[in-house]
Write a structure and sequence with these properties.
Layout lengths: L20 E8 L10 E5 L5 E6 L5 E6 L2 E9 L2 E9 L3 E8 L2
Parallel strand pairs: 1-7
Antiparallel strand pairs: 1-4, 2-3, 2-5, 5-6
Length: 100
């Protein structure tokens, strides 16, 4: 098991969504089932690597970022996929990444 922090969609205590931009989501396969153990990468608007987490057993991931346009890319044994997110300001922003 990976030593990465739990990426469940419940936010850590003290998270202030009026000041922080948080991306939460789930990696799913073609059958819409969660994909555990996917490497989920956050890329900035220019396509530059910013961060990486491993999806939880339920396919969940979470990133703390800033406003802007971002790409979330998932790499897994089931395949790869990506989605783009735009956050105009602080808050909770949800995404689903389908891999095939």
């Amino acid at each position: 098991m990976c030593g990465a922090p739990d990426q469940a969609q419940q936010l850590p205590a003290g998270t202030d969504l009026t000041k922080e931009t948080v991306f939460v989501g789930r990696v799913v396969g073609a059958d819409e089932q969660p994909v555990a153990g996917a490497f989920v990468r956050l890329l900035d608007g220019g396509g530059e690597f910013t961060a990486e987490v491993v999806s939880s057993a339920s396919g969940d991931f979470r990133f703390f970022a800033g406003p802007g346009t971002w790409t979330v890319r998932a790499l897994s044994r089931s395949g790869n996929g990506e989605t783009r997110l735009t956050a105009s300001g602080p808050g909770l922003h949800r995404a689903q990444v389908a891999v095939a």
